Amino acid sequence: MAATDEAADGLRAMIAKGELAPGRQLPAEPELCARLGVSRGSLREAVRSLAALGMLESRHGAGTFVSALRPGQMLAGFAATVDVLPLDGLLELFDVRRPLEAQAAALAAARADEQVLARLREVQKRLATSEDEAERHALDREFHATLCQASGNEALAALADVLRARGSHYSIYGAPEAETIRLASDLGHEALINAVAARDPAAAAAAATSHLSQTEVWLRRYGPAPDGGPAAG
């Protein structure tokens, strides 16, 4: 194992065991190097790699600290990987995204307040009238993010957002059935809003599953290109 990997593994173990708690500053380099049995160069490379993964953060003039270790922050590295997936990879993610967002919708139906409902209705109203494709993608993502955040589960909401992000690069709004797709999408959102308003977790989960399944069908049917690139084979 490379010295940099040994240093990274050692730091991860210290964090996992609670020796380096969230928000705590890392010990001085000489102390860490001696404990981990690595050079300063290897330690610094390890620190940079863990910072990129959201485990550590550098504070100008203060040093390096363990991050708050919040789910959204920790999934940042995963997000960068998901964001380059080709269409077939994105379609595989629907098998993961469907149950996640169904659970999020069910929890939202049990926990959401009137403020969340008002936000969902506002976003959907703008979606229904927007003629700008980029704006529709942004509003669609905001709708689903709002619903997932209303679940009250930060890890679930963060992971769902990561899985959802790549989808905005594949547009189905230019497909031959564009108007049908748009209408069905809007109706899917309305079904979610109604289920949350009725405080019906089962109906919310079913609405989320149906909505995402229909989106997957359209993506498979039309095989859109990512951001105007070469069409999917």
TrEMBL record:
Domain HTH gntR-type positions: 1-69
InterPro entries, from UniProt? GntR_C, TF_FadR/GntR_C, Tscrpt_reg_HTH_GntR, WH-like_DNA-bd_sf, WH_DNA-bd_sf
Which keywords label this protein?
DNA-binding, Transcription, Transcription regulation
What domain of life?
Bacteria
Q: Which GO terms describe its molecular function?
A: DNA binding; DNA-binding transcription factor activity
PROSITE patterns to which the protein is assigned, alphabetical: HTH_GNTR (PS50949)
Q: What protein name applies here? A: DNA-binding transcriptional regulator, FadR family
Q: Which organism is it from?
A: Streptomyces melanosporofaciens
